[in-house]
Amino acid sequence: MKSDNDVVITGIGIVTCQGVGKEPHIALLTGSQTSAPKVETERFKPYPVHPMPEIDWSTQIPKRGDQRQMENWQRLGVFAAGLALDDAGLKSDPDACASMDMIVAAGGGERDIKVDSLIVDEALKRNDREQLLNEKLTTELRPTLFLAQLSNLMAGNISIVHKVTGSSRTFMGEEAAGITAVETAFHRIKAGQSTHSLVGGAFVAERSDILLLVEGIRAHATGEWLPLWSRSSDNGGGMIMGSVGAFLVLESRVYAQQRGAHIYACIEGIEGDRGARDEGKLESRLTRMAKIASSVPARDTVVFSGASGVIDLAAREKSVLETVLPEATIRGFGGVTGHAMEAQFPLGLALAALSLDGAAKVPAFDPQNEKPMTAPAKHAVVTTVGYTRGEGLAVLSTEA
Amino acid sequence: MSEIRFKDHLGRPIVAVTGMGVITSLGQGLQDNWAALTSGRSGIHKISRFPTDKLSTRISGTVDFIAVPANNSVERSYAFARETTREALAQAGLSGDFGGPLFLAAPPVEPEWSDRFALADRSGPSQVEGDAYDRFLAAMRERPDAAFLEAVQFGSISERLSDTFGTRGLPVTLSTACASGATAIQLGVEAIRQGRTDKALVAATDGSVSAEALIRFSLLSALSTQNDPPEGASKPFSKDRDGFVIAEGAATLVLESIEAAIARGAKVLGVIKGLGEKADHFHRTRSSPDGGPAIATIRAALADAGMEEAGIGYVNAHGTSTPENDKMEYGAMLAVFGEGLKSIPVSSNKSMIGHTLTAAGAVEAVFSIQTMLTGTLPPTINYSNPDPAIALDVVPNAKRDATVGAVLSNSFGFGGQNASLVMTLEPA
């Protein structure tokens, strides 16, 4: 039953190694089969990463001065946010942007690798390291770098470039940032606290300083790219990061209808949770969360799993999904985009919405481990199981 | 059907504060902090955490008296929030699993330099210029270090708080720069108004002062360089103010629907009556010259509270002591309150505790409620050279007795962040 305060998706801004914008992603979701995605295997050897596609930044960030004030991570987010606003037909509506709420799922912490290298190399020769640090940071650090990588400045730059100023909130916490961002926007719209919201995030994989963090638990896959569910501990930890920007425009149904917006899909429900994962606790939590999908028929459902690729977690998630939604078709989208950390959950929703809207028979992303889809799905389940913590699950339905 | 007295002017559940905890450089706990704050004492001191030779700013309001297992931002921020949450829950009379959601304002974190140096020590020598991270990656591959990862995960503070206090669901970890604490309160209030929960735990913490953090703000010319004496550096609304003093701290508030609070016999300390926000698209670090977004933020908070300007009895100012903020904040308040501003006392806690950054909005909300509860206005200290362009009653240098029923607290931050809270003593 449709209701005025349904939360609907009306704008999609998406950038992955598959390309820029909706078209390449619709092609991915509606093709008869999937070809191996773009992978960069040399630059960060032995770690493969899914690179950013070629982007003409000026199409969404016209001022070069604005482009220069951001590191690639912020730039990619601002770019994808612009795509989503354009797609929703709101880019040219200054009043709508000025009253639009915004929640950005952000990481940050990009370093000036040259400066850091210079400091640690010099420090190897000295025993007054803290003094050295003061000297070098004071003279070598670019003052603008702080802002160019600061977590809440992706949102700040979206305000500056796209004039989205109703509110501006930045959520952090790896994958959970993206889950809680969508969850919060959903409940605000449901309760009438917001009529239209911009939600999403970005992640840039092509950075050794960022890759380093994850290698703290040896989470990266090594060597050649393998489909998501086909990875094994013979080749590292299983996770292949991807550069991704993913933003959504969410609106209440009534707000969207009043302005005649195209509705891709309706978000029926969403839940985030966390907790211990040992002794079957992850399984029982995911099983409980999946209950919000019990209102939709599983045989008409496609599951966009955001499994990070971490081998044990991916297997456990898949096994839960196959148990609780045995008739549904599962697609591990991180296999063809890379794991997008903060942006992973919004990315899953974007792909699900495009599939439902396009009545897609989504080809298997890992044909050895995913069954073919015989008819378009009417519903979608999107999951994200964080590579160290946090889980999210959303249920979407088609408008058709 | 809940009674009408539990609903606000828009029919939403009224949100009460039933527990508060706070840590600043002045000490641990609300009592000690309040005693220091009302006696006009400063917590700002010479930095001892790291050498400050050759730095233009050598003072801060670091919190150095809470034991941590390792010296990094995550451990400090977690420990501060754990302590303030214990205090707040005890005051609220709550024990066992909290059972409601957690909203945490936490600082963005990065590896500590000591960890980079340690990695360099166990890495191979440089092959080409600028290859430090390639070497670090090789060293990490050889010997992974889960503790290193945990210290740079933005989600690791809320994870531990959730486990320690038994909160429900997936916690929100957020950053809206210097408005973060206020945003966390806003999220807690919104969740209760949505009817999703009848209580929420809100914490804001910042233990991120390091040499690099200090230098970054220095390079943006944001910090005071009036190092001597340290306690004299933060002088909001003074003519010779020259920047903020970076500081640490934390605060926790237990929020409950007033209906649930009264039903369980909890003492209502105050009410979060209204919240407002408006983002600024003018510049990354500077506010719109006309103060438009800040004005809109304050007005939105008043409207959300269902109150007229004249209802506000005291303003807990953002008052950072930067030349720009204090001027902008004054202009915004003047636009909203007009002539009435002259008769509203406005003081800045930051004159004594410095700018606790991520924690500030929540720390100052706690002090705002305490102001109403005790009938004492904390002063703005170091006010000996008033800025003639800012005609405010800043409660100069000494506390003042005053009965206040409603407080406005402002928070403004880099990235166009603006949030204001209206708090009252009574629900209606």
From TrEMBL, chain A:
Keyword Transferase included in the entry's annotation: yes
Q: What InterPro entries has UniProt attached to this entry?
A: Beta-ketoacyl_synthase, Ketoacyl_synth_N, Thiolase-like
Quote one Gene Ontology molecular function term.
3-oxoacyl-[acyl-carrier-protein] synthase activity
Mind listing the GO biological process terms from this record? fatty acid biosynthetic process
Keywords, A to Z, come to: Transferase
Q: Where is the Beta-ketoacyl synthase-like N-terminal domain?
A: 5-252
Q: Does the keyword GTP-binding apply?
A: no
The UniProt entry, under NCBIfam families, shows:
PRK06519.1
PANTHER family, from UniProt?
Answer: 3-OXOACYL-[ACYL-CARRIER-PROTEIN] SYNTHASE, MITOCHONDRIAL, POLYKETIDE SYNTHASE-RELATED
Identification of the protein by name: Beta-ketoacyl-ACP synthase
The species this protein belongs to is Rhizobium deserti
TrEMBL record, chain B:
Report what the protein is called: Beta-ketoacyl-ACP synthase
Q: Name one Pfam family in it.
A: Ketoacyl-synt_C
Which UniProt keywords are given for this protein, alphabetically ordered?
Answer: Transferase
Q: What pathway is this protein said to act in by its record?
A: Lipid metabolism; fatty acid biosynthesis
Q: Which residues form the Ketosynthase family 3 (KS3) domain?
A: 12-425
Output the GO biological process annotations, alphabetical, semicolon-separated: fatty acid biosynthetic process
Q: Which GO terms describe its cellular component?
A: cytosol
> Domain of life of the organism in this record?
Bacteria
GO MF terms, alphabetically ordered = 3-oxoacyl-[acyl-carrier-protein] synthase activity
Entry-linked NCBIfam families: PRK06501.1
Q: Which family does it belong to?
A: Belongs to the thiolase-like superfamily. Beta-ketoacyl-ACP synthases family.
